[in-house]
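Sample 3 of the quickstart, ligand iron/sulfur cluster:
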Amino acid sequence: MADGQGAPAQAAAMVSEKIYCANCIHCKLVRTTSGNANQYYLRVRCAAGKWKKKLGEEKIYKYFTVARRSLDNCDSYIPMGDAREFIRDLRKSLPIKDELYT
Ligand code: SF4
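Result:
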C-alpha cells in the first residue's frame, strides 16, 4: 500500500480471522471400531499432536463436530484452501450426529 495504512488493517483482519482445523492439512479423518467388525465410526485427529486431554493423551473428536474445531491461532496450521468456502460446504455435507458406517 502506498500510504502505509493498508498493511496494518490487513494484518489486523488476518489476526482476527478464525482458524478452522478442518481446513488444515494436519486434520485427519480416521475410523474407529464399533465393536462389530464390519462397522466403524468416523473420528478426526490432529496429526500435529495439538489436541490433547488434560493428562496429555491424544484427543480425537467425532467427525460430525469437525466444523466446530476452531482456534484463534495455531503455529502448525497449514491451510488447504479458502477456509470460508470450504467450511460452508463442509457444514452442508456433515452428518448431524455420530453415525455408524459399514
Ligand atoms: S495443526 Fe493446529 S490448526 Fe491444524 S488441525 Fe492441528 S490444531 Fe488444528
